[in-house]
Structure formats: C-alpha cells, structure tokens
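Project standup — Tuesday

K.O.: blocked on the structure for the chain from last sprint. Re-posting the sequence here as requested.
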Amino acid sequence: MLYFLLIQLWIIDHMYQYSLESFQNFFFKAIEKTEENEDITIRTNDLILSIRITVYQWVSRGLFERHKQIFLSQLIFRLMQKQVVEVAYTPQQMSFLINCPTSTAVANPLKKWLPDKAWYSINKLIEIEGFEQFATNLSKDAPSRFQMWYNELDPEDRALPLEWRSLENTPF
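H.V.: unblocked you, prediction finished:
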C-alpha cells in the first residue's frame, strides 16, 4: 500500500519518483531496527508500525512543505479505507471531503461576505445526513455569527456557531 501511494506522488509533482529499490532499502531498514519479539502478533504489529513510520519519514524529507499534508492525508485516508485507523465516516462524507461537489440550485443570499463557491458547496453538504439544517442556520438563523466566525484569522481553530460546535468531536 505504501509503495503504491509513493509512486502516485508524481501526479502532484513530476520530481516525486521513487524506485522499488529505494523503497526496499527503507523497508528493510525498518525491519532491522524493529525489536525482536517471540510473540508473532506483537512482532507483526511492531514491524507494520516501524515500516509505516520509516517510509513516511523518508518520503516526507523529500517533499516540499506544501505537499507533506497531501501525502499524510492520502496515507490516513487509505488506512481509514482499510479500517486500520478506525474512524466513523460514510463514503458520502469522504467523497464530499475529497471532491467538494457543488449545487447551484439555490442562489447565494450571503454574497456580501460568502463566496459563491462556498455557498454552492454548502448546498451540496446539506444532502449529507446530519448537515440538513446547515444552510438554513447559516443564511437565516445566525448569519452574523457565521460571518464573524468566517472572518476570524484562524476559523479552523475556532468553534462553529450554534450547535455546529459539536462537530469538533467528530472526524468529518
């Protein structure tokens, strides 16, 4: 899985090209530095973790700073997909996160401060279970509170208005 993630990094930048031979070198280095253990289950888990960490560190050293988050996200998403990292999400949520689809069905009532692209994404977000009321809360119930949140220097570190602050406790 790791190797196939690596060889797809060239899509981000053509200079990211990794050979199977270099991958094998780091693969075997990870095996060598993993502690021996008589228990096969513990040894296997330790090896898997060591290989992931070693390969991730090796690749991260060679990535531009702006691409490190992309690689880490791809790795985490793949581990979530394989249920190695147990996170509750639906395929619909993951699709929205990756593709950010839009719907132009409703005109943007908040044009003064909210870009059309964001509004059209919100119109698609409300199709996902649990987000049905988001557009209504945003445009009618508390537009000034959402605008204050939107205008924060670091809104990603601030709680959303209304009951949407509970989203901090969910991975999506």
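K.O.: great, moving the ticket to review. The mean pLDDT is 92. The chain has two domains: 2-81, 91-169.
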